[in-house]
Design a protein that fits this description.
three-stranded antiparallel sheet; alpha+beta
Length: about 180
């Protein structure tokens, strides 16, 4: 006569099912955090890129694009760091600006804006995917509108044929579209 002892079988089944269930919940939780972090980084990059693209401190100097953009990259970096992404282990140091001064011709103006790279863990516990990380890139290339200095120079050239309209000229430069 053979007797089978099935005591503890439900406990083992519970432990295996519980471990699988908790692993699944942690995977969904980590994926949700990665998505939320990615969206936040994309938004921060977009807003910093907008700060860079709209910064213009034109003070009446014609033909001086670099002067019009003084401090724009620093303002954009400040806007990016204002989102405090270090809480999500996204380094602020990886944010860079593709500057308008670095563009060699006007066809590349669409690549002006902000870029950041960051890494996120795939697996919360490091058991399923190991220690591999997702390498992510967030880009916001909005294209650069002409600065006020560029617009003033274009209008000046159109009206006078010169690139420098100084205060001695009796004209008012205004263009709503450049």
């Amino acid at each position: 006569m053979v007797t089978s002892n099935e005591r503890g079988q439900s406990t083992i089944e519970f432990i295996l099912t519980f471990a699988f269930g908790v692993s699944l919940i942690l995977a969904v939780f980590n994926t949700s955090l990665n998505y939320a972090t990615g969206y936040l980084v994309q938004y921060a990059t977009f807003m910093a890129s907008r700060v860079y693209l709209t910064a213009d401190n034109h003070a009446g100097n014609f033909g001086s694009v670099a002067f019009s953009l003084d401090g724009a990259a620093e303002k954009a970096s400040s806007a990016f760091t204002a989102y405090n992404l270090s809480v999500f282990r996204v380094p602020n140091e990886n944010f860079v600006i593709n500057r308008v001064e670095d563009v060699s011709d006007s066809t590349q103006n669409m690549t002006v804006g902000g870029v950041t790279t960051f890494e996120l863990t795939i697996d919360l516990l490091g058991r399923v995917a190991g220690q591999k990380k997702l390498e992510l890139v967030s880009e916001s290339f909005l294209g650069k509108e002409p600065t006020r200095a560029e617009c003033a120079t274009r209008v000046c050239v159109a009206l006078t044929g010169q690139e420098n309209c100084d205060a001695t000229m009796d004209i008012t430069l205004f263009d709503d579209g450049c």
